[in-house]
Specification:
Elements (H helix, E strand, L loop, with lengths): L1 H14 L12 E4 L4 E5 L6 E2 L10 H4 L1 E4 L2 E9 L5 E9 L4 E6 L8 E7 L5 E7 L2 E7 L5 E6 L6 E4 L5 E4 L3 E5 L5 E6 L5 E6 L5 E6 L5 E5 L11 E2 L5 E3 L6 E4 L3 E6 L4 E7 L10 E8 L2 E7 L6 E8 L9 E7 L6 H11 L3 E7 L13 H8 L6 E3 L6 H6 L7 H6 L10 H7 E2 L2 E2 L2 E13 H4 L7 H10 L5 E3 L4 H12 L4 E2 L4 E2 L4 H12 L12 H5 L1 H10 L3 E8 L2 H10 L5 E3 L13 E9 L6 H11 L2 H6 L5 E2 L2 H11 L3 E4 L5 E4 L5 H7 L2 E3 L3 H11 L10 H15 L5 H19 L1
Parallel strand pairs: 1-23, 27-28, 27-29, 33-36
Antiparallel strand pairs: 2-26, 3-5, 4-5, 5-6, 6-7, 8-9, 9-10, 10-11, 12-13, 13-14, 14-15, 16-17, 17-18, 18-19, 20-21, 21-22, 22-23, 24-25, 25-26, 29-38, 30-31, 32-36, 32-37, 32-38, 32-39, 34-35, 40-41, 40-42
C-alpha cells in the first residue's frame, strides 16, 4: 500500500503541524512562549478586505502597516452607488478603537492596489484607474510628488531605510530612488518568486521556491543590483517580518522569532495556550515581540476577523473542568473545534497536548512520552492515536473505555445513528474502544460490469481475475510486487495475528498463497512502458481515457470527501461503479483502508462523561459539515447533508476531472470553451456511498513495526530463491518475538 501511505503522508503534511516539526539540523529551537491576550478589531460592515477589490488583489499582500502606535489595514469602503473607494482601517493601540480614513489618491477615481510609507510619512501607491496602473508618491499633506505609468501587474511595493522604492512585478524586482528615478532591475523569473519585504535589520529579502520545492530566500545585495547566495529557510513555516527579531515564522501551532546571529528559533506564542485557533490564521503582522496583528478566517463559521494579540502577565483563574486531548496526529480543524467548544461551554476547558514525537532516525511516530504519562498516571482524557501505534497492546492492557457505554446511554444518539463501518472495523470482542467520528476510505474500485458488481473477494478470486484480463488491458495502474504487499498487509495483517493472546500464524497455506501471488506480479509498474512521450507528459489527461475505455480495469481510489467521489465517477465515464475493497482470506469482508479521526477515552480519566461531551460536539452537524472538504462523516444524517449541500452549487468537471464548484450557473458557451462537464449528485450516487459505509469491513489494526518486519522479509523474498514457506517461517519467528515484547 505504498501509494496509499504516500498519500497519507501528504495529507498529514497538510493537516498536522506540531512543536517537534523538523527544522534544519543546525538550527536550535528554544521555547520562550508567553501568553498573549487577543482583542478583536471592530470592522465596519461596508469595509472590504481580502479579495473583494474589483480591480485586483490587494488584501493579502498589502498587509498591515504599523506607524507609531497605530495599525493601518488597506481596504475599500463600499459606497451607496455600488462603487468602492480606497480607505484605511486604522486601529489605535492606545485607545483600542478603529476608524475608517479615506486615502487620497494621486489620480481621480483611482483604486489603491498597494501602498507603503517612507520615513517622512509620504505615501507611495500603486493605483488602478480605467485600466491604467501607475506608481505614485504623495506627501502626508496631499502634495503630488511624482507619478508614472507601469505596464505590468505588480505584486507589492515597499521602501527601504533610505526611502528607496522597491516594486515586485512577479518576474522582476525594480528599484527606484526617492524621486522616482529608476535605479536597478533584479530578475526573479528563475527563482519561483513568492514574496519580498524589509527586515528589521535593514535588509530586503526575496522569498522563493527553490529546486527542492522549499521556501527559501536571498537578500538584495548592497549594490541593489543583485541577490545574495541562497539561504535555506530555517523552518518549514510561513515567514513574516517585524521589529524585534531578524525575522519571524508561524505555523498552526506557534509564532517563532528567528535570530540569525546564533541561528536560533524562539517559540514566542503557542496559539492554543493563548486561546487562538492557529488553523484559521491567514497571516501574521508583527509589530514587536510583544504585539502582533493577525487575520483569522474561522474554518467552521467562515467568519473573517482581524485581531491584535499582546503579551500579558494576566493569570486567568477558572473553575472549569479540564479535558486533556493528547494527539499523536492532528485532525483537520481540531484546534478551531476546541476553541469553539470552550467558548460555548463555560464549565469545560479542553486542552490540546501534542505527543507528535518523530524518531529522527527512522521518522516513525515515537510513543515514548505518551507511555511515560500513562505509566505515571497522567494519561490524557482523550487520545487521538497515530496509525502506527500498536493499539491492540494498549487495549489488551485495559487502558481504554468501551465507547458503546456512551453511545448506548446518550439521549440523542444510538448505534443506528452511525454507519456500520465504525463497528465492523473497530469492534473487538463486542466492545468499541476506538470511535471514528469521520473517515477517509481507500479501496479498489471498478466498473460493475468488470466484476459482476462484487464487493468482496478472496485472494484466489483476485488472482483468477488478474490472470484472466485480456491482452492490452492493465489490471491496475502502479500495481507491482511491493505495491501488492503493501495493499494486502496494511489492510490484512490482523488476519494472521491474535493480539489478545500475543500470538501469530504466518505458517499456513493462505499466507503462502499471498507470497507466491506477490512474486508473480511485475517488479515495476508497467503502464508507462506502453505510453508515448506525449502521453506521459499529459498523463493526467490521458489517464481518464484509459479507465473509460477499459484499458485500465481497477483504480486504487481514495475517497476523502464528496468531491473525490465526484472525481472518481468522472474517471470511469459516469458508468456504474463498485467498491471491490482489497482481497481477504475468505472473501466475506470488504477490506478498505480507513484513515479516520479516532477518539479513545482513557480509563485513567476522571472526566469521562465530559470527554464524551466534546466528542459529541465534534460529531455535531455544524462541525461535520464544516469539515466536509476533507472527510466523510460516519454519522448517517450528516453524510446525507454533505451530499445534499454539494448539490446546492453548480458542479462541473474539466477534462482531467478537476472539480469546478460555482455559486452560479455557467453559460453553455463558457462550459464548451472551458471543456467542462456538468455534474449532479443523484440518489444512486448516495446509495453507492452508503453501501460502502455500511459494508462489513475487516477489523483494522495497522501496526507499523510489525508491518516493517513483514515488508523487510518480503523484499528479501522477492529478490532471492527463498520459498514462501521459508520466508513465512522467518516472519513467524520475528513477529513472535515482537508480539511477546508488547503483550
Amino acid at each position: 500500500m505504498k501509494k496509499i501511505l504516500i498519500l497519507l503522508i501528504a495529507l498529514l503534511a497538510l493537516l498536522i503541524s506540531c512543536d517537534s516539526e523538523p527544522v534544519s539540523s543546525e538550527t536550535q529551537t528554544i521555547d520562550q512562549s508567553s501568553v498573549f491576550k487577543s482583542t478583536q478589531i471592530d470592522i465596519p460592515d461596508n469595509f472590504t478586505h481580502g479579495y473583494d477589490n474589483p480591480n485586483g488583489n490587494y488584501g493579502y499582500r498589502a498587509s498591515v502597516i504599523f506607524v507609531e502606535n497605530k495599525a493601518y489595514l488597506l481596504g475599500g469602503n463600499r459606497l451607496d452607488d455600488g462603487n468602492t473607494e480606497s480607505v484605511f482601517l486604522i486601529y489605535d493601540f492606545d485607545s483600542r478603537t478603529s476608524t475608517i480614513e479615506k486615502i487620497n489618491t494621486y489620480n481621480e477615481d483611482a483604486y489603491v492596489d498597494h501602498i507603503a510609507f517612507d520615513s517622512q510619512m509620504n505615501q507611495i501607491t500603486i493605483e488602478s484607474a480605467s485600466g491604467v496602473k501607475t506608481l505614485n508618491k504623495m506627501s502626508a499633506s496631499g502634495d503630488k510628488m511624482f507619478s508614472f505609468e507601469i505596464a505590468r501587474d505588480t505584486q507589492k511595493v515597499i521602501t527601504d531605510e533610505s526611502d528607496n522604492i522597491y516594486v515586485a512585478f512577479g518576474d522582476i524586482l525594480e528599484n527606484y530612488d526617492p524621486n522616482g528615478n529608476h535605479l536597478n532591475s533584479i530578475g526573479l523569473i528563475s527563482f519561483g518568486y513568492n514574496d519580498f519585504n524589509l527586515l528589521s535589520n535593514g535588509k530586503i529579502y526575496v522569498e522563493f521556491v527553490d529546486n527542492g520545492n522549499r521556501l527559501s530566500y536571498k537578500y538584495v545585495n548592497e549594490d541593489g543590483k543583485s541577490l545574495s547566495n541562497l539561504l535555506n529557510k530555517n523552518a518549514n513555516k510561513t515567514m513574516v517580518t517585524g521589529d524585534g527579531y531578524d525575522m519571524y515564522y508561524f505555523d498552526n501551532i506557534s509564532l517563532y522569532g528567528y535570530d540569525e546571529s546564533d541561528n536560533t528559533l524562539y517559540t514566542l506564542i503557542n496559539w492554543m495556550d493563548s486561546g487562538i485557533a492557529g488553523s484559521g490564521i491567514v497571516h501574521v503582522y508583527v509589530n514587536s515581540a510583544d504585539r502582533i496583528v493577525y487575520r483569522h478566517n474561522d474554518p467552521i463559521t467562515k467568519e473573517f476577523s482581524l485581531c491584535v494579540a499582546e503579551k500579558t502577565d494576566e493569570i486567568v483563574k477558572s473553575e472549569t473542568k479540564d479535558i486533556v486531548i493528547g494527539y499523536m496526529r492532528n485532525s483537520y480543524m481540531l484546534d478551531t473545534v476546541v476553541q469553539n467548544f470552550n467558548a460555548i461551554h463555560s464549565e469545560y476547558n479542553v486542552i490540546l497536548k501534542s505527543y507528535y514525537d518523530v524518531d529522527p532516525v527512522n521518522y516513525r511516530i515515537d510513543p515514548t512520552r505518551l507511555n511515560l504519562d500513562i505509566l505515571s498516571g497522567n494519561a490524557p482524557d482523550i487520545i487521538i492515536p497515530a496509525r502506527s501505534m500498536p493499539l491492540m497492546s494498549y487495549i489488551n492492557k485495559g487502558m481504554f473505555v468501551d465507547m458503546y457505554e456512551f453511545i448506548d446511554n446518550d439521549p440523542d444518539l444510538s448505534r443506528d445513528s452511525f454507519y456500520n463501518i465504525i463497528y465492523s472495523t473497530y469492534e473487538r470482542d463486542g466492545k468499541l474502544y476506538q470511535f471514528a467520528a469521520d473517515t477517509n476510505i481507500y479501496a479498489w474500485v471498478t466498473k460493475e460490469k468488470n466484476v459482476n458488481a462484487k464487493d468482496t473477494w478472496t485472494y484466489n478470486e483476485f488472482l483468477e481475475l488478474y490472470n484472466s484480463i485480456p491482452d492490452g488491458v492493465t489490471f491496475s495502474d502502479y500495481l507491482n510486487q511491493l505495491e501488492l504487499s503493501y495493499i494486502l498487509f496494511d489492510t490484512g495483517l490482523s488476519d494472521f495475528v491474535d493480539y489478545k493472546k500475543g500470538t501469530c500464524d504466518f505458517k499456513n497455506e493462505v499466507f503462502y498463497d499471498i507470497l507466491n501471488a506477490i512474486k508473480l506480479m511485475p517488479y515495476e509498474s508497467y503502464i508507462w512502458t506502453d505510453l508515448t512521450e506525449d502521453e506521459r507528459n499529459n498523463y493526467y489527461l490521458y489517464e481518464h481515457g484509459l479507465y473509460r475505455n477499459d484499458e485500465i480495469m481497477v483504480d486504487q481510489q481514495s475517497i476523502i470527501s464528496v468531491w473525490e467521489f465526484m472525481i472518481m465517477t468522472h474517471k470511469f465515464g459516469f458508468e456504474d461503479i463498485t467498491f471491490m475493497g482489497f482481497p481477504s482470506p475468505y472473501g466475506d469482508r470488504n477490506a478498505a483502508f480507513l484513515s479516520s479521526t479516532e477518539f479513545m477515552i482513557t480509563e485513567q480519566s476522571q472526566v469521562k462523561d465530559e470527554a464524551w461531551e466534546f466528542i459529541k460536539y465534534f460529531i455535531s452537524d455544524d462541525i461535520q459539515m464544516a469539515r466536509m472538504d476533507k472527510t466523510l462523516s460516519t454519522k448517517k444524517d450528516v453524510l446525507k447533508q454533505q451530499f445534499e449541500h454539494a448539490n446546492t452549487f453548480h458542479l462541473y468537471l474539466d477534462q482531467i476531472g478537476t472539480p469546478y464548484i460555482e455559486g452560479y450557473e455557467l453559460t453553455e458557451d463558457q462550459i464548451n470553451s472551458m471543456g467542462l462537464t456538468e455534474f449532479e449528485f443523484t440518489d444512486e450516487h448516495f446509495a453507492i456511498m452508503e453501501n460502502l459505509m455500511n459494508s462489513t469491513n475487516r477489523q483494522y489494526s495497522y501496526d507499523e513495526q510489525l508491518c516493517n518486519i513483514v515488508y523487510e522479509e518480503i523484499t528479501a523474498f522477492i529478490g532471492s530463491t527463498k520459498t514462501a514457506e521459508e520466508t513465512a517461517n522467518i516472519i513467524q519467528n520475528r513477529a513472535s518475538v515482537y508480539l511477546s515484547e508488547i503483550k
